């Protein structure tokens, strides 16, 4: 199982780039242009933000699937475009001449430099090997054992009022099964509570049966990699369904959980190393006992 990366930090990085008028990355191929041509997002800046995000997470690009990288890039583009639009509105109101803006750039640069310094220290000391992960796996076999059979699905969701559209998409998906993810991204985008690519976590079959009975019935004879040959109705929703995985109960193979274990170990190590580093810096610069010096500040 590959790592899942949180990319909320990208918004901060993009805002910083705009605030500091940093246009160095705005070159090369245009990956997105708004219909009015006011907003452009360039390949170089997207790759730069992707590198920052991976570095801040302590993860290499090779640890991710191509689909995960694509999702990250799409999120980066959306963040940059929205922040760029907000910056345009700010300039229209001359907020770029406001002291709250002009006198904040040094602080923003310090904050970014401090973050990079911490990451530079932490990442080197928080490396995790396959052997580290195997030791955890072997020592905690019960935690990596399925108690029952499970499935992982990919769903394209429609409202019941869109029955004709759902059936049309089903026909297209069956004719072009390799494009199922593209269909999911297109039609799930506006459906609340559904992941954009439509992929679920592993679902125990008893849970699927109790909560989504019609789905459970529909997939009974469908093999992994196949698409259910009918639109499935559950409550007020219509589902076009692809079975991604069928997993039997018992010990989960190490290779399937290796990356998850490594991510958890890496995060634990990063937290410990970050606290140690921050304490060492506080001690070095005599910042550990600031309360006494600050008690009279109101």
Low-confidence stretches: 1-22
Name given to the CATH architecture of the domain at 149-250: Roll
Helical percent range? 40-55%
Q: Helix/strand-derived class?
A: alpha+beta
Report the end-to-end length measured between terminal Cα atoms.
52 Å
Average the pLDDT over all residues and give the rounded result. Answer: 90
Shape: globular
How many strands in all? 8
| Main CATH class of the domain at 149-250 | Alpha Beta
Number of helices: 12
Strand content: 5-15%
Q: SSE order, as H and E?
A: HEEHHHHHEEHHEHHEEEHH
State the strand order across the main sheet: 5-4-7-6
The radius of gyration over CA amounts to 24 Å
- Which fold name is given in CATH as the topology of the domain at 149-250? Chitinase A, domain 3
Largest sheet data: 4 strands, antiparallel
Account of the 3D structure:
The protein has 298 residues and is α+β, with helices and mostly antiparallel strands. Among the domains are: 59 residues; 102 residues, Chitinase A, domain 3; 33 residues. It is 53% helix and 12% strand. It is built from twelve helices and eight strands. The strands form three sheets. Strands 5-4-7-6 form a four-stranded antiparallel β-sheet. A two-stranded antiparallel sheet has the order 1-2. It has a two-stranded antiparallel sheet with strand order 3-8. The termini are far apart. The N terminus is likely disordered.
């Amino acid at each position: 199982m590959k790592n899942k990366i949180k990319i909320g930090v990208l918004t901060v990085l993009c805002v910083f780039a705009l605030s500091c008028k940093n246009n160095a990355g705005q070159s090369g191929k245009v990956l997105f242009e708004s219909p009015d041509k006011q907003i452009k997002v360039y390949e170089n800046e997207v790759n730069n933000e992707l590198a920052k995000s991976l570095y801040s997470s302590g993860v290499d690009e090779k640890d991710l699937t191509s689909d995960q990288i694509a999702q990250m890039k799409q999120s980066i583009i959306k963040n940059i475009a929205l922040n760029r639009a907000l910056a345009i509105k700010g300039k229209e109101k001359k907020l770029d001449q406001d002291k709250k803006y002009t006198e904040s750039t040094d602080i923003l640069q310090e904050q970014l430099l401090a973050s990079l310094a911490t990451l530079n220290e932490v990442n080197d000391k928080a490396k995790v090997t396959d052997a580290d992960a195997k030791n955890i796996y072997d020592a905690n076999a019960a935690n990596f054992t399925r108690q029952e059979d499970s499935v992982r699905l990919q769903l394209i969701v429609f409202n019941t009022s869109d029955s004709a559209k759902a059936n049309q998409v089903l026909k297209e998906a069956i004719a072009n099964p390799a494009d199922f993810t593209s269909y999911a991204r297109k039609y799930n985008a506006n459906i609340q509570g559904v992941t954009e690519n439509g992929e679920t976590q592993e679902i125990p079959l008893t849970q699927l049966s109790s909560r989504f009975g019609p789905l459970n019935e529909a997939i009974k004879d469908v093999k992994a990699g196949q698409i259910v040959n009918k639109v499935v109705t559950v409550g007020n929703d219509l589902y076009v369904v692809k079975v991604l995985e069928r997993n039997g109960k018992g010990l989960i193979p190490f290779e399937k959980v290796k990356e998850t274990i490594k991510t958890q170990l890496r995060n634990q190590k990063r937290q410990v190393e970050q606290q140690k580093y921050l304490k060492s810096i506080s001690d070095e610069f005599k910042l550990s006992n600031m309360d006494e010096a600050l008690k009279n500040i109101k």
